[in-house]
Amino acid sequence: MFKTLFASTAAAALMTGAALANEVRVYNWSDYIDESLLAKFEEETGIDLIYDVFDSNEVLETKMLAGGSGYDVVVPSGTFLQRQITAGAFQKLDTSKLPNIENMWDVVESRTEQYDPDNAYSINYMWGTTGIGANVGKVREILGEDAPIDSLELVLNPDNMSKLADCGVHFLDAPAEMMPMALKYIGEDPDSKDPEVLAKGEEVMMQIRPYIQKFHSSEYINALANGDICVAVGWSGDILQARDRAAEADNGVEIAYHAPKEGAQMWFDQMAIPVDAPNVENAHIFLNFIMDAQNMAAASNYVYYANGNKASQEYLVEDVIGDPAIYPDEATLNNLFTTTPYEPKVQRVVTRSWTKIKSGT
Amino acid sequence: MRRFALIALPYTWLLALFLVPFLIVFKISLSDIALAIPPYTPTIKDGFSALIRGLDFENFIFLTTDDLYYKAYISSLQIALISTSLTLLVGYPMAYGMARAPAEWRATLMMLVILPFWTSFLIRVYAWIGILSNEGFLNQFLLWTGLISTPLTILNTNTAVYIGIVYTYLPFMILPIYAALDRLDDSLIEAAEDLGCSRLSAFWLVTVPLSKNGIIAGCFLVFIPALGEFVIPSLLGGSGTLMIGKVLFEEFFNNRDWPVASAVAVILLLILIVPIVLFQRNQQKQAEADT
Predict the structure, then answer these.
(1) Residue A271 forms beta bridges with which residues?
(2) Which fold has domain A22-128+267-332?
(3) How far apart are CA B168 and CA B150, in angstroms?
(4) Tag placement on chain A: N or C end, fewer CB within 10 Å?
(5) B257 and A67: CB-CB below 8 Å?
(6) What's the CATH architecture for A129-265+339-359?
(7) Among A347, A82, A345, which Cα is nearest to B32's?
(8) What interface predicted TM-score (ipTM) does this complex get?
(9) What would the CATH number be for the domain defined by B63-290?
């Protein structure tokens, strides 16, 4: 009796499993969407949306290269996308199923072509810059009224850093962003792959490493907002989220974001469909949903990142579209640089050098 | 036939769960990195002879050229040894107390040791972040009592790693020692005291030697996983905490170099084989002594 019951339950479970196959599995960065959009998608399309998050490109790439991740839509950043396309991890988009693709913004598309020629494999989700978040009050108290909060001098000059150390400085734990920044500071090509030039970047970082409290890629949002730290080198939208959390908490902390005036790195997070995605059809429906002008605007209004969707701009709130830290003006835009992926041998040099910077060994 | 089945079962188990995974990892460690799915070359798909020709020990040679790796192995050994000793110091009195407690309490005490396992290991380690951080419970309590005037920096140091390992692996130390002490015949201690031993020397001369097997088993059960520990040093340790588990993660995820990561793992396993074999022999001797 028990056995039959068990068998029929198992069969029922399997059948529901098959019936539920109308689904799409999305793997996106953490804190990166207005969650009401997820419910809206399910409501409009009747497709079950399974939404998982990650917080590093490295973890995503490892899953992609292992194969069989089970995801239908993933969101790697430009250089990582390029490597994974070369490795054969993605499939070309079927633009006939993506009518909303006409909403995309040529200014961004012309830049993402560098990673994905003809934008054949991916659409832009968000883009931004890597720069400096500062607790304006405290930094001015320590370094004086003319503290260089919009310059790499603030975070890469040992004189300034030694004074800021006690107040707390966090850096991103992302060598592919921090090494180009160090190279830019000493006037070298930020995209250099030459080990000797990279060694100079390491030298810059080694001089300031004693003054860095932590290398981490997400903790700085709260730490800045709570006033636990004074300065963070991080991603534009994250620092702007910290600014808003501090303003909401009304705790007297004023956070400002600046893309360094010497030049800042520009990055792009691209949505793509893995080559072995189980629900290709639904993945296209999801991408088309995201490219809808109002949906994309809702996401940007929520996370404070610029998007690659021209049509969405009329639905953006003034706080987002009018903020030069999010949508930079022409002059700043020209001052931004992009980078290309490291070869495996160079990647090893960079990771080794980053381990040395972080641990002293 | 029955005898054969009895032997075949554990060996199939060993083959499927240990030898086959090891051979896969070992094969990857002899391969070269490639930008493909999977990210190394050659693979079985290239055919058998190409596979054999493509394998070499280059990655193992590479490990000797950079001092990072041997430093990480040494530092892991050191951290594992210190935390095993600390766990023994904390665990032995607890096991002793349990074995000496009135019989009706023992089940409850045993329950208390096992109870934390009902919560996810990850959540328990995260809880330590809340306790040890600069604004954490421990510092707030110490500031409140007036014992310290500025917060102690414990989180993101090796001290926090020791605390985490001792806390996590304590039951693995207590249970085998308790099992050994529980079997101890009280009349032996009475006899020792009758023959003129003080209580302390009876403890050293009778109780400790008779619980030796439990101590050895507990130490290995803590030392072996602590050596390759990754979660505790990455959550509680600082950027200066060098452990082989972290190096392995970096090779795998940051360099995306599966062959070198596999070579690091193979060496780690070779280092672990020594204590595992010693542990196995101790268990065997004990089993023989029991029969």
Answers:
(1) A123
(2) D-Maltodextrin-Binding Protein; domain 2 (3.40.190)
(3) 28
(4) N
(5) no
(6) 3-Layer(aba) Sandwich (3.40)
(7) A345
(8) 0.73
(9) 1.10.3720.10
